Amino acid sequence: MRKVTKRTVTVLVAAAITLGTSSAAWAWWEFSGRATVEASAASIKPIKVETRDVNGLYPGAEKDLRVEIYNPNPFPVVITEAEATVRTRSEHCDDAISVELPRRPVRVEPGHKSYTLEDAVRMDRDVERCQGADFKVVIFYSGQNAA
Fold first, then answer.
1. In this structure, what CATH number is given to the domain that contains residue 106?
2. Which tens digits make up the pLDDT trace of 80-89?
3. Which of 11, 39, 67, 110 is 20 to 30 Å from 101 by CA-CA measure?
4. What 3-state class would DSSP assign to 91?
5. What pTM value is reported for the model?
6. Does 107 reside within a domain?
7. Backbone angle region of 119, left / alpha / beta, with phi > 0 → left and psi within -120 to 50 → alpha
8. Structural domain for 122, as ranges
9. Complete DSSP assignment for 125-138
10. Alpha-carbon gap, residue 79 to 92, rounded angstroms
11. CB-count burial class (<10 Å; 0-12, 13-18, 19+) for 117
């Protein structure tokens, strides 16, 4: 049996360190590379606006307008423009009703929200000819992403 000297141990340790370092360097090159990540941008979905019926209008009356808004997006949107058009089948009553919508942008968070626009629907004082008439208010609106 051979005698293990200090020199032999030093050579073996140096050889082990060299092999270990070589293996580590080989492993580094073996596992390096690059990755590709794919992503897609979401598109904005239109919000839905519904109003409740306004009943009991009479000449000079001002009534609240209840508005339900559903934002299906995972981010807030802003209604930047809104316009109301009043329609009726009764003759001479097209301009008897007016609707006042907010002039400033309205921020709508995700989900369902309810808003009450106080005294937003008005009937002119001089509209005796429109008794019993039915009116339809159509709201046109546009907006953008607020995130």
1. 2.60.40
2. 888 888 888 8
3. 110
4. coil
5. 0.63
6. yes
7. left
8. 48-145
9. SS-GGGTT--EEEE
10. 32
11. middle
